[in-house]
Amino acid sequence: MSSTVEMPEQDPLIIMTRVFDAPRALVWETFTDCKHQVHWWGGHGWTLPVCEIELRPGGAWRQVMRTPEGAEYPLNSVIVEVQPPERLVWTDAVQSTHPDAPPSPLHTVTFEDLGNNKTKWHMVARFPSAQAREMATKMGYTAMIETGNDRLAAYLATR
């Protein structure tokens, strides 16, 4: 199952939803624990050689994604809100590592228990402007998340 993607005209949002065939506690754990993120985060063939997360408000979330060709993309984020196992909010500081990157969104992800070992993952990325959202979309923002979700679904199937 693929993610649904919405981009409301009136708001600089990207809204994505996906249902995973796994219990909410497991989806939460694989999303918030680096020992799991290294198996699925990023594009096909990408690795995550660096992953550190302080899962608390104000905590740092640092990742380095590496492409199959060896290019590295550092991500430095700050955790804003944590409500295990149902809600995680963070913001990125990619401008510090990629000056040409669009302004970062505020990410809010919720994990809804649908019963029968199914979990609805719902992400709202709030960009500072419509232009920033458009720039992120052109740079492959939604495609990268969709690929990561595909990899997460495959990883969850092995758990």
Automatic annotation (TrEMBL):
Similarity comment: Belongs to the AHA1 family.
Pfam families membership: AHSA1
Domain Activator of Hsp90 ATPase homologue 1/2-like C-terminal: 21-156
Originating species: Roseiterribacter gracilis
Signal peptide: none
Cited InterPro entries: ASHA1/2-like_C, START-like_dom_sf
Protein name: Activator of HSP90 ATPase
